[in-house]
Write a structure and sequence with these properties.
Blueprint (H helix, E strand, L loop, with lengths): L7 E10 L3 H6 L8 E10 L2 E9 L6 H15 L6 E5 L19 H19 L4 E11 L6 E8 L5 E9 L7 E9 L5 E7 L11
Parallel strand pairs: 3-4
Antiparallel strand pairs: 1-2, 1-5, 2-3, 5-8, 6-7, 8-9
Length: 207
């Protein structure tokens, strides 16, 4: 974006995703809190430019991503490459992707996600657009994330030395948190934020 000269507007929408019902279907004792799915439409010079969709789930299925991108790209007349779906990769939700065997696949959860995303999108289109200016910030933070893979002894099924999910302070990490804030031009308050961090952040603060 030309941050100084472009006419930037945004529309935002969100819905709560109900998670626990799907654990009954999978016959497990797991439970998870309800989570939020957010959608952001960025308009440049009054034309849709990008769509960002986030959800606090383990991942989106390949089929869901293709269907969502196809629907929105046709509706807004934009390239599917300008539509991004991002899951937080929390391990507390059912698995919507058939090709991944664990946790157990849930086709109803996959269909539910698609239905909810389309509902949020249609709702967001009706929202009043906000006149904003984007502001980029890079926050140096050494303790925010560390590499989570290293070899160590495992005593499961005998004694083995293998790769595990353990903090690895020797590996290189992203020491920055990149942040784009969309500041409302009238209220001067943050209307929406995009935060970029590396995958699988493992916090290791001193205090």
């Amino acid at each position: 974006y030309d941050l100084m000269h472009s006419d930037i507007h945004i529309k935002t929408g969100s819905k709560t995703l109900k998670i626990n019902n799907f654990y009954k279907e999978l016959s497990t004792l797991e439970t998870s809190n309800d989570c939020i799915c957010n959608l952001l439409i960025i308009l440049e010079n009054n034309k849709p430019k990008n769509v960002l969709i986030t959800a606090d789930i383990i991942w989106f299925s390949e089929i869901c991503v293709k269907k969502v991108k196809n629907f929105i790209s046709k509706k807004l007349s934009i390239s599917s490459s300008r539509i991004v779906l991002c899951a937080s990769h929390t391990h507390g939700t059912p698995n919507p992707e058939k090709s991944i065997l664990r946790p157990k696949y849930s086709i109803s959860f996959d269909k539910y996600l698609y239905k909810k995303i389309i509902q949020i999108f249609e709702q967001t289109l009706l929202e009043e657009k906000m006149f904003v200016y984007p502001q980029f910030r890079r926050i140096p933070e050494n303790d925010f994330s560390i590499n989570r893979r290293r070899k160590a002894f495992s005593f499961k099924n005998g004694i083995n030395y293998k790769m595990q999910n353990l903090p690895n302070f020797k590996k290189e990490i992203d020491k920055n948190i990149d942040l784009i804030e969309f500041i409302h031009k009238d209220s001067r308050k943050v209307a929406a934020s995009i935060i970029k961090t590396n995958c699988h952040p493992v916090s290791s603060p001193e205090n």
